[in-house]
Records
---
Amino acid sequence: MNILRRLSLAMRAAILTFRYPALAPTGKPGALARDDWGSYEYRLFRYGFYNLLYHNKVFTALERYRRQHLRERGLYRFTRPIYNPISRLVELEAAKAYGGALDWDDFSHGAIPLQNADDRVIEAVRQVFKWSNWGQRKSLYARNASRFGDAVINIATDFLSQKVRLELLHPGVVKEAEFGPTGFVKRVVIEYERQDPADEKPWLYTLEIDEDHFATYRDGEPYAVHADPFGRLTAEWDNPYGFVPVVLAQSMDIGEGWGATSFHASIEKIEEANDLASVLHDQVRKAVTAPYYLAGVTSLDQIKEDVATVGDEDDEESEEARSSVPVILGPEGSSAQILVSNINIADSLQTLERLLVEIEDDIPQLSLNRMRREGGNLTYPGVTTAYDDAISRIQEFRSNMDGGLLRALQMAISIGAYHRLDGFRPFSLDSYRQGVLDFQIAERPVVRDSLSKRDQVELYTQTDAPNEWSWELLGRSAEDIAKAKMQQVDTARQVAAQLISVMAGDNGRSRLAAGDDDDAGA
């Protein structure tokens, strides 16, 4: 059996089989037991299953292992994806990681602000981002990590166009990866099916990279796919960089090499919520369309009216099967009974509500979606205190993303320097070791405080803080503030002069009036 056939079977098995153990690491630490969490088949299953959750297609016909899934988890056979917070969680984390536009001028602000970066570094980063279309791809980078638990950046060099760029790969195409003690990739095998225009059928492309060499294969055999710096097609060439130009970033580092998603420990609770919600929905449906008890009818043939049927009677998952109850025939003299189970819907809804609250406690990031709609008049300090756990989770996710992106940028600049590409010539492969590339991605607030400026100005006013604080908060420049202060001083002087003039006039009239009185007395 060739490699392509084995890969196809592995992917098919991952799609058709519900691999429940793949959803959590169960191995023991150390070399005595090897964990399956990082195995290729388990990862393929996780990525596919997480993708169904993200698109809210779990428990539907698109989930090929649906019956096995429901049976193994003991769920209601008509469970549907009624409650699913995964998509909004992924979009929230992606937006909080790299929301907004890049600051192409100097990267001092924007979605990816840099610090400790000189003009040479900024110019190199700008070039890499432009060649990589990173203004758009940055969100996909974070979205992949949030959705799959893993995100992959391949630093690719195009010798024909003289460019180095950050290419995003689906984590499912990374068949193997070996990590060093600090989590950096020491060896990687990238493998996927491809079909060039001249090919009659797909073939298996394999790229193997370690710290010493690159090699490419076609269906397991060495095959020259890429051109070297001299334009020659070759199947194997030396790695001159001293590192593997691939970065694997994790949404949540659980010490397993491969990452976990923010929701991986809450999947069972989400399934239970959908189980209960589906039962309640169907129970309401049955109560509305309750069947008749036919007393004295021994056969449906006795009924003259034609009864229209909806859907395939043999299909357990049809709309009719969910909403109907079998007709029961009884002898003459019998009395009708309620044919729909009497479920206390109000109590069941309270149980469901408690379960949803429990899920949000597990994934506090979800509360940020409701903050602006239900947050009331919380000030910025109040928001950061009330949502501290959610903000901390977002900061951890963002830190993991920034760390991977920073390594990818440093690799890209080093590679561009080695090949003497335009914009990278001030650097070399030793630039990072020498500290030249020791720049960082700056911290930025998870919750913007611009909405609470009014509260801050009021606080400054109540505490008799200097007016300059309020002006600076509102974005006034030092020059504008100086002018405003001069105007205030001039205005105060004018008011004081007018007041003195008025008081002087009043005093003159008072003395005149007093003199008249004296004359009259005399």
---
Amino acid sequence: MAIDPHTFARPDEVVVKHIDLDVTVNFKDKKISGTASLEIENRSLAEELHLDTRGLSIKNVTLDKDKAPAFFVLEPEVPYVGSALRIKVHRDTKVVHIEYATSPNAGALQWLEPDQTRDRKKPFLYTQSQAILARSWIPCQDTPSVRITYSARVRVPSDLLAIMSAENPVKKNDSGLYEFRMLQPIPSYLLALAVGELEFRSTSERTGVYAEPSLVDQAAWEFAETPRMMDTVEPLYGPYLWGRYDILVLPPSFPWGGMENPRLTFVTPTLLTGDRSLVATIAHELAHSWSGNLVTNASWNDFWLNEGFTNYLTYRIMEVVYSKEYSDMLSVIGMQNLQREVKELGPKSADTHLKLNLAGRDPEEGVSSIPYEKGEFFLRTLEAAVGRGKFDAFLHQYFKTFAFQSMDTEHFLEYLNENLLSRNPGVSEKVNINAWLYGPGIPSTIIPVSSPAFQQVEGQLRNWQQGRPAAQLDTNNWTTHHWIHFIRNLPESLNFQQMEDLDHSFHFNEGKNAEITNEWLLQVIAKKYEPDFPVIEEFLTSQGRRKYAKFLFTAMARTEEGKKWAREIYQRIRPLYHNVSREVAERILK
């Protein structure tokens, strides 16, 4: 595989195979401290082990059972990637023990005071290791090209529950000591820990939900279709190989819609709409159990191999579980997202390629709609060219062949040529594969998408533009996706009275559904509809999702006046945000 530019590790020389953690979570000092014991394989008789760290205090390093002292050097910090930890090892060294502590400002960790949680009773801690933040709480080879198993002993306050991306307890014990095992090898970005006042509800023999007590029953209802989603994927792409699939609903500051930590997906509470209209995110995180967790991008330059495949599987799940009409709506919204991203980045930008070059940059800069939507439409275009039956068989074999391995774009292309394109002459030229992988913008070969349901939405929008009051439009049974399409297609020139009519009729500003609120507030900013200006700060304060911060701050920053206002808001809400959301906001507002 190509060299990962975001790691100091040299796994071709010495590779870590297993990590055993023995750590204590200290809420008072906002630190995790203890020992990480790394089982290694010396592949080249090397004399040094190279690890990734970021902000870690390394107190002591010893080797093997006799705990012989080891010489180590912590190199100066490099922007984005942290500090290399070089440890002298012997050719026959089997285990390296590292005694360490995290920084109170560790990038992966968010420490929440009780009043920052839903129930406002107990403190909370959660980690977010993707993309290269695992190194900020565990010394490791922090690259998706290396896979490890892990075990852990974690000490927490006795009134809190600890859970990880591993085999988990379902209730608190009296000691505050919890033990974990992850038997399947995973990349470091899937290391995850959460500690808080949590309860568990089972939704099937192999699925369940963790959440704060006031949310847990609502979450169990919202995500009750998860077992059906699992039953949809397995016949198509192979068995679920991770044992259980549970979901943890985190406090509002969580920066992502969902994070596919194996055995325990982390999700935002903004998915809890009361109508199951945003469960495509659950389908997406579940799909990562095949695309991403099972077959993993070898570096963040190949991020589309995780997210494009996962988006494709998501649409397939939603089509079976909810209907093709539902999936078609998601497809049109996905196309809109792709078009908007290409316009924002520039149609000739190298960041619109599927194969990225993020060397010397924070890999978070590669998180856009491109790997998700352009990657998904590439696979869908391939499916249309060869037929769904052949494409399903190809994907099933792909996941089986490369299970628990890493993949880069070039090796995937080799496999694609050998196992699909060579058996279907003319498809490569018809699809123009190089344009998808290595070219900018949206290739002309992309398949068209449409939605009959959205045509009805557009009809209602025309009625409104022709003078019918908004309150008289036929919006019965509209889902989140109908409303998103309606708001996105509002004319560019709306006067105050028209915005007021929509505002008073549909109450977009009440924040009951974060996706709808986000789209409405983008219109509020663009149309300078001042009555809802206070809602912008209220919304940004109510949750910490990266994408909402990105969209809204970008829209505000298009004018100097708006950028000044955005900076003022951000300074007030910055302490509420996880490091992931802070970094994207600060890139926009710098």
